[in-house]
Structures are given as C-alpha cells and as structure tokens.
C-alpha cells in the first residue's frame, strides 16, 4: 500500500490511483480510510457558501457536503447549517439530540417525529417528551375533506385538537373515503390511533417538512372546519392557510400523538 503523508501547508493536492490512503498529520493512516486527518489543535472545515452559491454547483454528486451560511429559516438559531446532497436534493444534516432524547425527523412510533411539545404548548409536561408523529408518506391519491354542505362544527385549530376533530368528522359524516375517515381507520406498524391534524398541528408539519420528508404536493387538508362548505388547508410551499371547498381532493398526511 502506498501512502501520501502531509505534515505542513497543503496548497494543492492531486491524488491519482496509486495513492490508496492519505494521511494529514499522521504517517499511518487507517487502511480503510481514503483520507485520515490527525490533529489536536484544529478540525475539518467544509466549504462555506450561501444558498445561491450552493445552487450554482453544477451536477452535485450524492454525498457532497457543505456549510450553508443562510439556509436556516428566519428566526431560528444557530445561523447556518450542515447540508448534504442526497442525489436528488439538498437536505439539512440533523445532528441529533443529547443521549436519551427524541428528535424531529427520528423514525419512531410507526412514523417520523414531526414535532415535540415545548413549554406553553397544550400537552406539554415538564420532564417528559410528547408531541406529534407523522406517517412516513402521504395517503395515496389524496382525498376530499367530505360532507360538503354539512357544518360539523369542528373548528378547533390548536395543538391537541386534531384527534377530537377527526373523531367528530368520523361519526358525523357517513361519506366513505374522506380524509378524516381514512386517517382514523389507518393501521401502520400496529398503531391504529392516527388522525387528520388540526390547522396548527399541520403547520408544525409544514415547518419541519424537510426533516420529516415525503411531502409530494403543495396543499394539505387539516381537520379544522371553516363553514358548511369549506375547511382549512395548508399550502406547503409557503405558510399560508386557505379555505377550500370540502369536495376538492387535497393531499393528506396522517398523524398520531406520542
């Protein structure tokens, strides 16, 4: 095995097929590593670039990583985030929580953790972790909200109200194959307590859509009703809610509590 050993300034490195392992700061790089860096005074610094600079990269390879300087949503901290190209799109690298904690984007409870209750949220209990789990994928082909012209009075919009809304729709509307009924009848990985999220619960899915993944179309039904003919839907390319006729087909992502 041939080794390229680098101890000082690295101005330009051209590696050809004869170099099987490269060591920076070490003369004995691991044979399983193409590159090993050994240091007690510094770390590995990835290319730092803006959103526009990232998008100007031509034909990015799957696995390409950068630090995006301005990709963090406004108001969130820290500014900037680690990103990787997965072969189809750039995705934030979720670094995960401290040991023993749940985290958004974690496969859990038959789906993907979509939101963890924070102090002040309905359902928050100090010292415990509760929140929303989203099904891994949307329902195939979407669904109507249902019961056009029938005011079911499920106008709850807050966290914690989606299950109540769904149950009321289920037992008050006999129309088959509507969004709430499909969610309520759903069984995934032995879990059978899925429901159609309320407006605010659906908005949490929108805010964390990159970590949850699998969203296919821009408009999703909530279980929150507006009138006998309209219910609330969430636009997933922006933060806007819309009052949509109940007999329209829109996308559906079931959720459950944990």
Question: How would you characterize the overall build of this protein?
Answer:
The protein is of the alpha+beta class. The chain folds into three domains: 42 residues, no CATH class; 45 residues, no CATH class; 115 residues, no CATH class. It is built from five helices and 16 strands. The protein has a four-stranded mixed sheet. Strands 8-9-10-16 form a four-stranded antiparallel sheet. Helix 2 crosses helix 3.
What are the main properties of this structure?
258 residues; alpha+beta; 4-stranded antiparallel beta sheet; 5 helices; 16 strands; elongated
Nutshell version of this structure?
With 258 residues, this protein is an alpha+beta fold.
* SSE order: EEEEHEEEEEEEHHHHEEEEE
Structural class category: alpha+beta
Number of contiguous helices? 5
- Roughly how many Å apart are the termini? 53 Å
Contiguous low-pLDDT stretches (5 residues minimum) are 6-18
Tell me the radius of gyration: 24 Å
Secondary structure elements and pairings:
Layout: E1 3-6, E2 21-24, E3 35-37, E4 48-49, H1 51-55, E5 65-68, E6 81-85, E7 90-92, E8 107-108, E9 111-116, E10 131-134, E11 143-144, H2 162-172, H3 179-185, H4 199-207, H5 209-212, E12 219-225, E13 230-235, E14 241-245, E15 249-250, E16 255-257
Parallel strand pairs: 1-2, 2-3, 4-5
Antiparallel strand pairs: 5-6, 6-7, 8-9, 9-10, 10-16, 11-15, 12-13, 13-14
Helix pairs in contact: 2-3
């Amino acid at each position: 095995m041939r080794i390229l050993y680098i101890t000082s300034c690295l101005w330009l490195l051209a590696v050809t097929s004869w170099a099987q392992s490269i060591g920076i700061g070490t003369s004995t790089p691991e044979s399983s590593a193409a590159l090993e860096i050994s240091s007690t005074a510094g770390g590995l610094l990835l290319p730092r670039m803006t959103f526009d600079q990232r998008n100007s990269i031509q034909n990015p390879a799957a696995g390409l990583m950068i630090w995006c300087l301005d990709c963090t949503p406004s108001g969130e901290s820290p500014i900037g985030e680690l990103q990787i190209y997965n072969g189809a799109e750039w995705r934030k690298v979720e670094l995960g929580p401290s040991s023993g904690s749940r985290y958004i984007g974690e496969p859990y409870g038959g789906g993907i953790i979509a939101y963890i209750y924070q102090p002040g949220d309905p359902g928050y209990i100090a010292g415990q972790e509760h929140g929303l789990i989203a099904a891994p994928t949307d329902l195939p082909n979407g669904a109507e909200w249902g019961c056009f012209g029938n005011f079911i009075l499920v106008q709850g919009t807050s966290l914690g109200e989606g299950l109540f809304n769904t149950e009321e729709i289920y037992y008050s509307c006999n129309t088959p194959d509507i969004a709430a009924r499909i969610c309520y009848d759903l069984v995934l990985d032995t879990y059978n307590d899925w429901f159609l999220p309320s407006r605010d619960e659906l908005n949490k899915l929108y805010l964390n859509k990159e970590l949850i993944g699998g969203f296919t179309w821009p408009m999703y039904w909530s279980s929150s009703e507006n009138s006998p003919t309209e219910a609330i839907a969430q636009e997933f390319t922006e933060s806007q809610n819309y009052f949509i006729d109940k007999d329209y087909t829109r996308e559906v992502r079931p959720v459950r509590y944990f």
